[in-house]
Write a structure and sequence with these properties.
Chain B: GO terms for molecular function: 2 iron, 2 sulfur cluster binding; dioxygenase activity; metal ion binding; monooxygenase activity; oxidoreductase activity, acting on paired donors, with incorporation or reduction of molecular oxygen. The complex is a heterodimer of chains A (356) and B (119). Chain A is α/β, with parallel strands linked by helices. In chain A, 38% of the residues lie in helices and 11% in strands. Chain A has one domain: Metal-dependent hydrolases (TIM Barrel). Chain B has 119 residues and is mainly beta. Chain B has a single domain, classed as Rieske [2Fe-2S] iron-sulphur domain (Rieske Iron-sulfur Protein, 3-layer Sandwich). The chains are: A alpha/beta (356), B mainly beta (119).
Chain lengths: 356, 119
């Protein structure tokens, strides 16, 4: 029996580059450092991801051995055509992740430029369903703004990608990035990376880190809100990617209660934090905790809106969420919001409906 | 009793998984290093991942203590290709982290070189 198709707007798909593939897009001297000096981005995680194939779904590794996510045709067959995606938002594989580099920002900026050009040529212009994320080296704010100006107007770039790690992006130093985003109708997408949290250290076991990823997400949402980003840039939206969603009611309640007591410190906030979140912050669903329908509906009720959640698969990673199985059954109207309409309403550059 | 020859024993090596059909049911046949054969539905009970792409491997056991791994069940555990959930073939395909849950399984016997699956 043919599987039922789901016209999904998938808010987290990881396409992957291999370093050799972006050499042709890199300028010198950076090309030399990668090609001849074997540069790779620093990585710190002391563990592997202890499922069956590292960070990937074992069945997403290509038959010829290339890494999962590195081939469009295979992704089309295994994901986009199989599920029936209407659109998918590419979020990179975080390797390389220019904004996570702890030095050599010139290299990071060159890498971001090369990556964006590779992404546009090999993915965005090859499949009408795929939309992209602008990669920048945000540590050098002014270079980052130049890169946004260079590719941000591309019709298929819908957001700017920033990592959640050891930089708190709400700091006014980074606000020109948000100004440039707003200018080009780009949203901000944030995804955790390495190191995982503001403190920069790791717990002893992977399961501890992976369980508590939402704490890093909560830190950055609070940071963006209390630093006044969303009142200063009222058209800006923030998509929090891959932190799950059960922490959201807690965070809204906590920020509102703190704001009632401590508003004096952040007088630039014009609205309650929970109102800012409902208006300008969206949350991807994966990795979804396994909730019953009753628990899930209760959580939506606690959020006070059914317009914050946007379904994501995280393909091709090991903790992929199946659009068929990850969330409990729900009413068609709510399902349509979570599986497509909330994301469509969030990204100004996504078309209303894909033309058949 | 419905039964069916699904393959020859030589069609899969020790430690390998092979996909097959039992009637219309898509199943997997697993062969351990000790040449025991098992058959399960080719679908993880969690989110439906294809178990034909899973790994037959060992597992850390509950004899482990903090900071000291104890590892056994060599090639007797099916690890899902997506989320890595572990199912113990020798214990009716039960999930290690939650033995109340188990894979749908089928009986297997070997006659001559034939692998025969039956209910």
């Amino acid at each position: 029996m043919a599987k039922k198709q789901i016209p999904l707007i998938d808010t987290d798909i990881h396409e992957r580059v291999q370093y050799k593939d972006i050499l042709e897009y890199l300028d010198e001297p950076f090309k030399h450092y990668m090609k001849n000096c074997h540069w790779i981005q620093e990585k710190h995680m002391p563990y592997t991801q202890p499922a069956t194939a590292g960070v990937d779904r074992a069945d997403a590794i290509l038959p010829d051995g290339r890494p999962a996510g590195s081939d469009l045709a295979f992704m089309q067959e295994q994901l986009l055509d199989d599920v029936g995606h209407e659109f998918g938002i590419l979020t990179g594989a975080l390797d390389p992740s220019p904004s996570s580099m702890h030095g050599w920002y010139e290299m990071a900026a060159a890498l971001a430029t090369a990556y964006n050009d590779w992404q546009i040529e090999h993915w965005l212009e090859k499949d009408e369903r795929l939309y992209g994320s602008v990669h920048i080296a945000a540590q050098d704010r002014d270079e980052a703004v130049k890169e946004i100006e260079r590719v941000g107007s591309h019709p298929k770039m819908v957001q700017i990608l920033l990592p959640i790690d050891d930089i708190m992006w709400g700091d006014p130093y980074y606000h020109p990035i948000f100004e440039a985003a707003e200018k080009h109708d780009l949203m901000i997408g944030m995804h955790h990376n390495e190191p995982p949290v503001y403190y920069g250290k790791w717990p002893r076991y992977f399961i501890e880190w992976h369980t508590l990823i939402p704490t890093a997400h909560m830190k950055i949402i609070a940071n963006m809100i209390f630093n006044g980003v969303f009142d200063k840039f009222p058209k800006l939206g923030l998509m929090m990617i891959e932190g799950g969603f059960t922490h959201i009611p807690h965070l809204m309640w906590k920020m509102d209660q703190q704001f009632r007591d401590l508003r004096h410190e952040v007088p630039w906030l014009k609205r309650k934090p929970s109102e800012i979140m409902k208006a300008q912050v969206r949350i991807t669903t994966q990795p979804a905790e396994e909730l019953t329908k009753k628990e899930f509906m209760s959580l939506i009720d606690q959020m006070g809106t059914d317009e914050m959640l946007c379904f994501s698969t995280d393909y091709p990673h090991w903790d992929y969420d199946s659009p068929y199985r990850a969330l409990p059954n729900m009413e068609p109207e709510l399902k349509e919001k979570i599986f497509s309409e909330n994301a469509r309403a969030f990204y100004p550059k996504l078309p209303d409906k894909r033309e058949e | 009793m419905k039964e069916q020859v699904v393959c020859k024993t030589s069609d899969l090596q020790p430690g390998e998984i092979r996909e097959s059909f039992f009637g219309k049911k898509n199943i997997i046949i697993c062969r351990t290093q000790n040449d025991n054969f098992y058959a399960f539905m080719n679908q993880c009970i969690h989110q439906g991942a294809p178990l034909g792409k899973s790994l037959l491997c060992g597992a850390t056991t509950d004899e482990s203590t903090p900071g000291d791994y104890h590892y056994c069940h060599k090639d007797e555990v099916i690890r899902c290709p997506w989320h890595g959930r572990e199912f113990d073939m020798k214990n009716e395909g039960r999930m290690l982290a939650n033995p109340d849950k188990k894979l749908a399984s089928f009986k297997v016997r070997i006659e001559n070189e034939d692998v025969i699956v039956y209910k």
